[in-house]
Structures are given as C-alpha cells and as structure tokens.
Amino acid sequence: MSFNLFNTILLFVSGGFLIFLSLTVIRDNLRSRLNQVTGAMLFFAGLGPLFLALGQVINLSTPVSVNFEDIPVYNLNRIWEVFFPLLLLFAWTYPEDKLRYFRYRWIKYAVFIPPFIHILILIYYDSVVLFLKFFEAAGASEGLSSLILKPLATFFSWLQILFSIVRTYHAEIFYFAYLFYVGLAVYTLKTSLDSLASASLRTQATIVLRGLILSLGILALTLIAFEFLTADYADSLFTVGIILATLVGSITVAYAIIRYQFLNVRLVLRQSFVYTISYSILVGTFVVLIIKSREIVEPLFGQQTEIFGHIFIVVLLLLFLPLGNWIDNLIQSMFIRNRTDYRNVLERFSRQIISVLDPKQLREIIRETMQTALLVDTVYFVMFDDSVEEYVLLPNERFSKKVILARDDHMLSAVNTLTGPEYLHTLGNYGYDVQLSRELDERNVRLILPMKEGEHLLGFLGLTDKAAGYRYTSEDFNLLRVLSNQMVTALINARLYVESIERLKLQEEVSMARQIQLELLPSAPPKFENFKISVHSEPSRTIGGDFYDFIHLRDNRLGIVIADASGKGMPAALMIAQIQAMIRSEVNNNIPIAQMLRNINEQMTASTSPEKFVTLFYGELNPKTGEFIYSNAGHNYPVIVRADKQIEHLKTGGTVIGAIPDLEFQSASVRLGPNDLLFLFTDGLSEAQDENEVEYGEERIKNMLCDQLHHDPENLIGTLMKDVRAFDPTSPPRDDTTIIALKMNHMNR
User: Fold this and answer.
1) Phi and psi dihedrals of 564, rounded to 5?
2) Which residues of the chain have pLDDT under 50?
3) Residue 379: partners with Cβ closer than 8 Å, 6 or more residues away
4) How far, in Å, CA of 28 to CA of 266, rounded?
5) Rg of the chain over all Cα atoms, to the nearest angstrom
6) Who contacts 653 (Cβ-Cβ below 8 Å, separation ≥6)?
C-alpha cells in the first residue's frame, strides 16, 4: 500500500469520524444550543480532512495536464474554516452560556465573516479583478464620462492593489485571524475553568482546554514554518498542519464526550459510537490483510505461497472473534471505570452508604453523588423532622434558614402521589401559590425525586437544572429511581440508628436522674424508740413521680411527706425535686403547716402550667405524745387503724398544689396510741387492676390492714404487696406505688 493511499484513507476515516460524532451530538439533544454549536464545530472540522482526501483522489484519477486545485470551485473546500468561528462560539457557550450577557448580539454572527470573505476571494478573485480593470480602462477614456469614471477608476485601482495583496497573502492573513480565534477561545475557556465548582465539569473543561492549547501550538508552528519553507513544501505542510490542528482539538472534544460524558451524551450513544468506530477499523484491517495476504506471505514461503496463504487467511478468521471480544471488554471497562457510568455510580453509592448512619453525612453523600454523577447544580432536601413533627426544607449554602412546611400543603400531597422522579411543572395542577411551590420556585428546582417507604413519604430531593445547560435524560431518570430506593433504605437505617442512640442517651440520662432521685429519697426509714416505720416505693418507670421524705425537726419531732406528681417519668421527677426543695426550705422557717402549703402552692402556680400539679400530704409527729399535726393537699386519704381496728381517714387540708393560685389550706391534729397504725400510700396501690380492669380499691387495703395489724410495718407491707401483685401481676406496675407504714409501740406520758 503506497503512502499516498494510506494518507487518503486516514483522512477519509478521520473526517468521517468527526462528522459521525457531530451527528451523534446533535441527535442526542437537538434543542440544546451547546449541542448545536459543538455538533456544527465537529462537522466543519470533519470537512477539512474529507475535502483534502477528495482532492487527492481526484488528482490521482485525472490527467497530469489538469490540476484540480487550479479550478475555482476547488476553493469551496475552504468551507471547513467555519470551524474556527464555531470554536470561538463554543467557548462562549461552554460551560456557561455567555452569549446572553453580550451587549451586542451581532458579534456572534460577525465572527463568521472572515471565513466567508476568504472563500469569496479565492473563488471570485479573477472575476473581481476583471471588473476592476474594466473601470480602470473606462477611466482612461476622454469625454464627459471621464469626469465621473476617473475618480472611480482611481478608487478601484487602489482597491485592485489591496485585493491583490490580500489574494497573495491570504493564507497568512486569514490563518493569523484564526490563530487569534483559537487563542481567544483558549483564554475564554481558561477563565471559565477557574470559576467552575463542579469537579466533573472541571475535568471535562480541562481536557477540552488542553486539546485546544495543543491545537493552538500546532497552528502557530504551522504558520511559522510556512514563512521559512520553500514553496514546494510550504503549501502541502500548511494544509496538513491546519487540518492536524483542527483534528487534535476535535478529537479531544470527542475523547471528552466518550470518556467523561461531555455534553451529557447518553451512555448508549457513546458506547454505540465507540463500537462502530472500533469494529469498522477492525473489519477494515482484516479486509486489507486478506486482500494483501499473498503479498505478505510470498516473500517468506516462496513456492509454497498458495498453501501458506490459505493458512494465513484461516488464522486471521480465527483471530477475528477473540480480537472482537477483547475490544468489547476494553470498551466496557473504559466506560465502567468512569465515575459517571451508572453501573459504577450505583456500586460506588452502595459502598458509601452501607456503613453511614449519620443522617447529615448521608445527605452529603447523596448531594455529592447527584452533583458528580448527574452534574446537578444544586440539591435541596425536604425531610420529615421528628423534633417538630413536620416536613422541613433543610438549609444549604444558598439558603441558610430552615423552612417548616404545613402538613396540609397541596404540593406536599402531590409529591406523596409520585412513584418516581418527575418534573416540578407537571405538578402545577396542585397549585402554584402554596408555600412549598413558592419555596421550590425561588430555589429554581426543576426535578422532584420522592423518597417513600411504601405509602409513607420520608421526604424528597429538589434538583435544579444540570450544570452547563445539560438536560435530564431517560438514563438519568432510571438512575434516580434506583438511587431513590437505596436512599430510602439508607435513610431508614440512619433514622433507626439515631433513634437507638437517642434511646441509649435517654436511658443513660434516666439512669443518672434515677440515681439522683434515689439520693434525694431517704436511704432508710428513721428509727425511734416509740414507733417503727417502714417504706415501699416502686416506680412505674425508671424515674417515678412519687415522692416521700422524713424530716427531723426540733423537739425530736418527725416530719413525714408523701406526694404524687401528675404525669410520669422525667417531668414528674423534676417537679417532685422542686417540691422537696420547697418543703425543706419552708420547714426551716418554722411556720405553720397550713401556711407552708399555701406558700408552696403560690411558688408552684407561678412557675408551672395548671396541668402540672402535685397531690401532697405532710404531717409532723411528736414521738413522745403521739400527737400528729397534718394537712392533706388533694392526696389519697391516709388511714389510721386503731388498736381496736377502728379506722380513721386524714382528710383535712385543701386541693392539689400547683393548679390554682391563692388557695388556703387547713391543718388538723390527731393522737396516735399504742399499737395504732398510720398508713400512707399513693394511688398506684389502690388503682392496681386485674385482668378485668377491676381496681384493687381502698376497701381491700383497709381489710388487709386490719387482718395484718398484729404484724410489724415491714411484714405488713410485704404481705400487702404480695396480695396486690397476685391481684395485678403487671411489672413494672401501671402507676408509681409508694407506701409508708408507721406503728406506735408506747409513749412516754
């Protein structure tokens, strides 16, 4: 195969490659200006080598006396020079459309003037010169007409000189102009590259920029060489250099499209394009080898050429399938290694989220995946917030405030009906003037991606337009559907993890609070000579709302407190701690019991809401005389079981503490005799229920007290609680249960 034939085939292949690629780019998104400009640029870049190859074919097939390049129509091949203004237009369009900021819109059309002037000069030069000479000859005539024609002849004479200079040095003039175009395009892309936030776009733009810089270098060297080489080599080298510069820039763009998803060309088109080119080269190579098999084998085997020629062809045919498989695997690996290949995206995303249980970190991974794999400009999160029990539009770097959404928002209801990604404008029937719609419009959200667990909406992503004006493709929608399922699983796992952590923290806090509460309670009942006292306290939760205390007073008297706060758990325990502090403070002031309760009630009503209240019983016992002064603030009536089993209730006092301000309380006094029993309890004891929801009741308590009166307080409480647990085996009990049992022995008279 001669060098000229190989060169012609190479030019045809490279030109066809670029034209095929241009049609692929335009076909992928015909409405995109960037795709239109890039496709046109690649198309005209492909015309250069095609016209050059066509010229070589025509010159080889025509008589020597006829030079195809001397025919004026031949100069139409210069149409490929439109590539240079299109390159500048491309730099003004990618990665951001800068044309919309131009003050003078005609500039984008004016850049096409030089190549068209160049073509017109080359094609119509002889006709224009003939026209100018006509006026020059007409101006030399005498007569009245010469007065008009002589000035015109002078003007056209200078114009002819200028036209001849341009024609003589047309290559230098216009290619220096194109050199300026390429330099301006490189500068524009470099400026845009510095402002890009997306890593994927920066990679794409960097590859394209490097290709253009290389093209600029080749173009500059070609122009310099043209000035120093002889005419025999200058024209050929000049043409080859210019086309090589064009090919380098264009092939760089092609590589960015195939390898890095430049222009967001769909994966199926990129792969099919590479398959077509690869297998075309493979088949073409095999065809040439088969055709030339005799020429290849004959120098090696001489007379046995015929036999080994057939063997050579068989070997080639056997190698075709393995080579085809190797090319297939190579192409697959080329795309799969790419971070924007969707199979790789899904695999990488799965690996990242499988061990991430922090919701904030998980959202960051989702955001990074959307911006890297799909080139989404901005991602907004709308999630259900357990702390406010509403859906919340989370803040980001552009909007720093969290927006709480009404649960009855019509747009939120519309999102809940979606089963996959959907454009926001398709939900317009649900109302444009609702809160969520206004917030999404303000943020320029284009696409909604719901995240649902069955029929329950966990939240959704609001995706803005893609970077560089790229559109969402069907491949993007398929990827988003799969990613949504993975995100739902990850979010549920993260939520369960957070809840478990919060439960552990709460359990630790509750355990600590329980320990503090236990330290506030008496470590053991006090011991006196004249009576015995025993206590039982069991919370329904780790922290109870029941409270009791024993306060040693002057004159060896004993203050006894039992209380029950409304509610359960931590709030009730905090209220009880507050009450204990108030009681001990008031007792130290040595004021009457009724006034003490009035003061406590005023403090409570001033610092708590009415639904938070405490039932409380407080009494002071004189061990020597058995006198017991008390006041009952809405608590279960304590019981006195006399030695003869007569029963009395301690009712005097007032209503609960903390609910109503400005209350007055009363106090009363009773005397306890030998073997009398004072029994104080909370409602957890009397309201214990069996399986039929029948309460244990105060009557049963009093009967048990009478039956067990002969026992000491500790055994009495043990027997009573055994009977209660047989009646209601619920553990822990449904309500806090506290019992104080005090039994008199004898008094000093």
Assistant:
1) -140, 115
2) 1, 64-65, 267-268, 335-340, 749
3) 366, 367, 370, 371, 396, 461, 462, 463, 464
4) 7
5) 48
6) 597, 617, 630, 631, 632, 633, 634, 635, 665, 666, 667
- Helical ranges in 453-541 per DSSP H: 474-520
Please name which of 638, 595, 649, 587 lies closest in space to residue 616, comparing C-alpha atoms.
Answer: 638
Q: Which of 745, 613, 734, 594 is nearest to 672 (CA)?
A: 745
Query: Chain-centre distance of CA 427, in angstroms?
Result: 22
Report how far residue 464's alpha carbon sits from residue 444's, in angstroms, rounded to the nearest whole number.
Answer: 6
H/E run at residue 719: helix 713-727
Say what the pLDDT of residue 745 is: 85
Model pLDDT for residues 92-139, shown as the tens digit of each residue: 888 777 877 777 778 888 888 888 888 777 777 666 666 656 655 555
What the block records as the tokens of 237 is 């080298």
- pLDDT at position 163, please? 67
Helical segments of 540-645, H only: 569-588, 593-607
Interhelix angle for 267-291 vs 305-336, to 10°?
170
Residue 632 near residue 594, CB atoms below 8 Å:
no
At residue 354, the pLDDT reads: 77
CB 83 within 8 A of CB 246: yes
Neighbours of 297 (CB within 10 A): 20
Q: Angle at the Cα of 88 (from 82 to 91), degrees rounded to 5?
A: 140
Determine the number of helices (DSSP H) and then strands (DSSP E) in the chain. 22, 17
Query: What stretches of 264-413 adopt beta strand conformation (E)?
Result: 379-385, 390-393, 403-404
State pTM to two decimals: 0.52
> For residue 201, which of 375, 376, 36 has the smallest C-alpha distance?
375
Say whether 533 sits in a helix, a strand or coil.
strand
Cα 20 from chain centre: 37
Condensed to tens digits (0 to 9), the pLDDT of residues 710-732 reads 899 999 999 999 999 999 888 77
Residue type (1 letter), 424:
L
Cα–Cα dist 364/347, whole Å = 17
CA nearest neighbour of 687 among 652, 649, 646, 738? 738
Q: Which pLDDT score, from 0 to 100, does residue 69 have?
A: 54
If residue 678 lies in a helix (H) or strand (E), which one and from where to where?
A: strand 677-681
CA distances from 523 to 31, 75, 329, 515, 535 (A): 83, 109, 78, 12, 10
Paired tokens of 706? 């009478």
Q: What b/e string do you get for 442-474 counting C-beta neighbours within 10 Å, with b at 16 or more?
A: ebebbbbbbbbeeeebbbbbbbbbbbbbbebbe
Alpha carbon 502 to its chain's center: 24
Strands 668-671 and 627-633: antiparallel
586: amino acid identity, one letter: E
| Maximum C-alpha span of the chain | 164
Instruction: Classify the C-alpha dihedral 580-585-588-591 as positive or negative.
Output: negative
Helix (H), strand (E) at residue 628: strand 627-633
Report helix angle 146-168 to 170-194, nearest 10. 60
Q: Position of tokens 């399938």?
A: 321
Report pLDDT digits (tens) over 227-242.
566 555 555 666 677 6
Cα–Cα distance for residue pair 77/82, rounded to 1 Å:
11
User: Do 558 and 623 contact (CB within 8 A), yes or no?
Assistant: yes
